[in-house]
Amino acid sequence: MSWLTWRQYRAQAWCALAALAVVAALYGATGPRLAGLYGSSGLPGCARTGAGCERAQSAFAAAVGADGLLTGLFWLGVVLLLVLPAGVGMFAGVPLAARDLESGAFRLTWTQGVSRTRWLLVRLALVGTAVAGFAGLLSWAVSWWAAPLDRARSLPGAGDGSLPGRFGPLVFAARGVVPVGWALFGFALGVAAGLLLRRQVAATAVLLGVLAAAQVLVPLLVRPHLAAPARVEGALVLEPGRGTIRITGDELYASVPVSLPGAWVLSVRAVDPAGRTFTGPVPAACHPDLDSVAACRGAIDAMGLVQRVEYQPARRYWPFQWAESGVLVLLAGAVAAGCAVRLRRGVTGG
Hints:
The protein is 64% helix and 9% strand. The protein has helices spanning 2-40, 43-49, 53-66, 68-103, 106-109, 116-153, 169-172, 178-197, 200-222, 293-301, 317-345; strands spanning 230-235, 244-248, 251-255, 264-271, 306-312. The chain starts with a helix and ends in a 5-residue tail after the last helix.
């Protein structure tokens, strides 16, 4: 069974090894360059003293942003790890059962002294282990390369909005151990779709739809609530040059910068003294026909509004990583077990 599995997956294995080699070359060669920009920006000194971080963060962000190669590699790493579950599901999961069921080759295999359950479990174990290893190495390479960016964003200071935080919805799934969980989940979904539909094209379509929905819904509905969000409140005082005022019709939005290094900010809103979310009315001094920003700012300050920020603290990053990846691995295991039960009860193909 091991030899047969290798024969059927050798093309995917060689492609995966080639992809890892290219990633290692690209990120290994440019990693010192990114680390050099981090060192020359003054961020190491800021990390020791806690002073001047905002200026150093801005300088580092500007230097990285001006380097098209580094910017491109950052987003390439994010995209690679976000599409990894779909790729694994398509090229490793779906063919695992659907290829033999669709072609009828399973009839020969199951008459060679190999039970249906063993046929499936050996393949799941071998290919699943390879998938986990591939995802882990790819995630490690990207996470190692992006470590200076992650450190810069987690330092004290207001920070620079152009530095993406590793706790953000997109980047979170492209760092640490979470990509391994998503890859195994995508693999298991592909196996299940192939086993149930017995047609590779149809199974691939179902896999992509379910996986896309999961990758959208988890960051929106599940991940923010793995732990109760922390909350911080402070008087909403709009200092010159350090605040946002936006008026849309009869609604007013005002905020001041939030300094929560490395945190995942879930919501920022103004509330009135009674604790209700404030959206208006718009003060007369903020009428669009008037041209006095100072007067508008003073009118908003006089309302006694409070800015309420809900967030997940930076210290929860790794607990969230392990929690999400653990849930995904358990789901993958449950799907795989369901596939084994389904196969043992009998599957016949056209």
